[in-house]
Amino acid sequence: MPTNKLASFRYRVIDKCLRNKYRKYTLEDLLHVLSKELYEQFGIDKGVSRRTFFNDINVMRSPYPRGFDAPIVCKNGYYMYEDPEFSIMHSPYNEDDLAALQEAINLLEQFKGLLHLESLYGILGKLKAEMATYHFPASPVILFDKNDAYAGIRWIEPLHGFIRKEQCLKLTYKPFIEEKEIEHTVHPYLLKEYNNRWFLLGWNEEEKLIYNFALDRIQQIKKCKCSFYKKGKELLLHYFDHIIGVSFPRDGHIERIVLDVNEELYPYLETKPLHPSQRPLDTSGKIKRIELQIIPNAEFEFLLMKYADRLEVVEPINLRKSIKKRLEKALRRWV
């Protein structure tokens, strides 16, 4: 029989003894009862050592989820519950609670690549070991899409520290389209993941604007002594309300987007809208017309390109022309 099952059995035997209001148990008494019960139930005749017993008592005294918060005391050589009404069978956590905790551990373990959660992983490691007493599936039933090989992941831990401490930083950045590195003074506010890439959003001291920086393009980070600009955080409260992704065009404004969608794609967009503002205009025919209120950006155009064979931009004209230009350029490459 697995060790953790035997441990669970011993806990119940100890609990039964400590709840006995008509008899007191010394260490030797408890060792005798434990050895006798193990032999009678499982045929184990090697007895229970003092080391095993004291380890069991330590686990039972431990807080949830490892133990039971059992108020075990030893008075005049006798072991007992300080609260005579206590029992491990009265645990506030039932099987469903513990199963949910195990699933939460499984979910969080999928993010081990995020180094800024290193302290949390230490806690998870302890919980995982302690949950071994219970018999729940260790494999996750939900999987997240993630990129463990992402080049910018090394910056998450230091940037997370700057954000928490509200410290400015000097950030050396090299965009894909630039040959030279650029140095920015940044007041960091938020780390955000989009499409398996991570971005830092913060106040750009030179431009006096909220900027987003792809972590894989960051070359260097160092401390800066400038005073942290807290007011910029207020701009992030609704920063993502009208955009897709992380790019906010400098001169961007909310526009009415009208799309014609074929009957094959429409059910998919109906259940997974392009944006929370999406609403139907006319769904009576084979071609369904929908509307969005959004600030067009590069990510939105890329999303439309993904469905270019099954939808058409009706309005605004400038967006329609931009998508058409992208399609014509793509077609020239393929012909």
Could you please describe the fold and organization of this structure?
The chain has 10 helices and 11 strands. The protein is α+β, with helices and mostly antiparallel strands and 335 residues long. It has 4 domains: 3-90, Arc Repressor Mutant, subunit A; 95-133, no CATH class; 151-230, Roll (SH3 type barrels), CATH 2.30.30.100; 255-334, Alpha-Beta Plaits. The strands form 3 sheets. Strands 6-5-4-3-7 form a 5-stranded antiparallel sheet. Strands 9-10-8-11 form a 4-stranded antiparallel sheet. A two-stranded antiparallel ribbon has the order 1-2. A hairpin with a 2-residue loop joins β4 (182-194) and β5. The mean pLDDT is 86.
- Globally, the shape reads elongated
Can you name the CATH architecture of the largest domain?
A: Orthogonal Bundle
Number of strands: 11
Enumerate the spans where pLDDT stays under 50 for 5 or more consecutive residues.
Answer: none
The helix-strand sequence is: HHHEEHHHEEEEEHEHEEHEH
* Cα separation of the termini: 68 Å
Fold-level CATH name of the largest domain: Arc Repressor Mutant, subunit A
Q: Can you list the strand order of the major beta sheet? A: 6-5-4-3-7
If you average the pLDDT, what whole number results? 86
CA gyration radius, whole angstroms:
30 Å
Brief rundown of the structure:
With 335 residues, the protein is α+β, with helices and mostly antiparallel strands.
